[in-house]
DNA sequence: GTGAAAGCGCTAACAG
DNA sequence: CTGTTAGCGCTTTCAC
């Protein structure tokens, strides 16, 4: 009997000889009942294999017990880690997760978000979404939490609660490290579509005031893009001794192609990225990067969101995480020349 | 006015001076109306900024327009690609996606699945889930599609529709390639928790009847596991000239550690994996692997599922995909010794 | 402690 | 083409 109409609360009530209200309260653990009633209900539930219909429950309560998570590109392990963290916490609290992948195409972000909004109790989204999308998120008036880099350049102070991490600081630390390793001629592989891009560049500049920094702009933030940019980055100007990439994906492609071209990393060129995507540790040479606490971002964002959902709290919180510089062989000692 | 009760269908109806039914039909594009009514409705919708409440709709129709996707480990890009493919198709058809990540811990899979089942119109799940979970999926009676390797050893023929790919064939092709490259002493890094593991081993054995094959069993299918297994795999027996891993994640860790230990890949040892995870192309040396059509699996599974949902079709389909051997430098020419 | 009644917002017959 | 009438399964006052 696989295809049989599932038992409803009413069915259970009838079977147990009580009212639907009572069963409802029992199921939701709202009160204790006379032992007799309790056992009758329990028996009926087992016998009928009853399970609460979440849709009906949602209809009555206005809560779905589902949260939405909007990421920019699910193929980037950085976002995967965020999902992982968020999903973990959601599950612990009995919440489901609806994932929307923007695939870096954000033209209809508003639509997707407002569609999503009606199905969920709250939304977690990247603060890198286009401004219109963020505005929409605010307009919607649902609990929402942003994650990602701080963005002090934003015209108005961010009004949505968020879990943030200092992009400037991350870049500054990396820059300092490169400078102390004696690097003087930098190429920065930029991803100008990201509003976090500028901050990273500023951090680098401030950390390396004496270095030359050439900026190359990429259209995408993929391994392929890094690969394609390699030759120009390496040979496009007189001197280069370090290349910093907008993120690890780009760095992975670049590192690979640099090695293919016979460049010695790090002896001739240092290479680094951002995010500390898990695979970077396993590259040859292992990639220097800055840990942006991806998984923790997801966890914290979800905790914050659930807190807001449950307490109905209004005032926007802002949680700061600390980026961590991860020095690996790809920025090791430079060969004396 | 951000926090205001959203307009209901009834509100629109009243504002437009028609009945709720009419508005409903209009919204769902079921019929055409007199131009006058149409413009009145449209105006009311705009004025009130009305949007359909999906929960109420679900309650009335019994359909949620959401599908569930259960993966074993979202941190494995193989699954990420599947999600990507599935999500793409779902979005095109106006369906939402609820993702459940089992994190390779499948002890409470049944529970998670039956919880998920009530919130969605159908479920896509890995055929690698434990048998109890698959039974549960069938018992639930919701549309469901499995993806993953074929598994001819299964006691009963698989009763659920599925998108499958020949694991045996994939392994056989890889084995043949290794054999033709002159490899004679194989180590297979197994992941016995996966029911696909055996088939891969069989494929290798059949393709390399003259080779010795030592099997090393791993507890997890991660890069770390591959890294830790490296020394034993390389030096644990007299002769080794090739190591095949259960999947690319393991291979990535192994490859890295092998290089760190000073082993020449592929001159001394060939290394290969399965899945064709995107990053494998960018390793040094690039990793030979077998493309298991991850993204396509996700796409096809979703197409199949949506088809079943829409037509209510019963008889279980089985779609076969063809694995593709991807030869890269990690299994290149062996040095004459 | 338990139950009766009134919806949540929408769709689905069936009439007109 | 448009409206009327019933629910979908559950929660929630508010009485008893």
What does this structure look like?
2 copies of one chain form a homodimer. With 337 residues, chain A is of the alpha/beta class. Chain A has 3 domains: 9-61, Orthogonal Bundle (434 Repressor (Amino-terminal Domain)), CATH 1.10.260.40; 66-166 and 294-323, Response regulator (Rossmann fold), CATH 3.40.50; 167-291, Rossmann fold (3-Layer(aba) Sandwich). The first copy, chain A, is 42% helix and 17% strand. In chain A, β8, α11 and β9 form a beta-alpha-beta unit. In chain A, α1 (9-16) crosses α3 (35-48), α8 (167-180) runs parallel beside α9 and α10 (223-235) crosses α11. The radius of gyration of chain A is 26 Å and the shape is elongated. The termini of chain A are far apart. The mean pLDDT of chain A is 91. The interface between A and B is large, with 52 and 52 residues. Chain A binds a DNA duplex (16 and 16 nucleotides) through residues 8-10, 18-22, 24-25, 28, 31-34, 37, 52-53, 55-62.
Q: What fold name stands as the CATH topology of the largest domain in chain A?
A: Rossmann fold
End-to-end CA span of chain A: 79 Å
Q: Largest interface, per-chain counts? A: A-B, 52 and 52 residues
CATH class of the largest domain in chain A: Alpha Beta
Total helices of chain A: the number is 12
User: Ranges of chain A with pLDDT <50 over ≥5 residues?
Assistant: none
Spatial strand sequence of the major β-sheet of chain A = 2-1-3-4-5-11
The CATH architecture name of the largest domain in chain A reads: 3-Layer(aba) Sandwich
Oligomeric state of the chains present here: homodimer
What is the CATH superfamily label of the largest domain in chain A? Response regulator
Structural class of chain A: alpha/beta
Shape of chain A: elongated
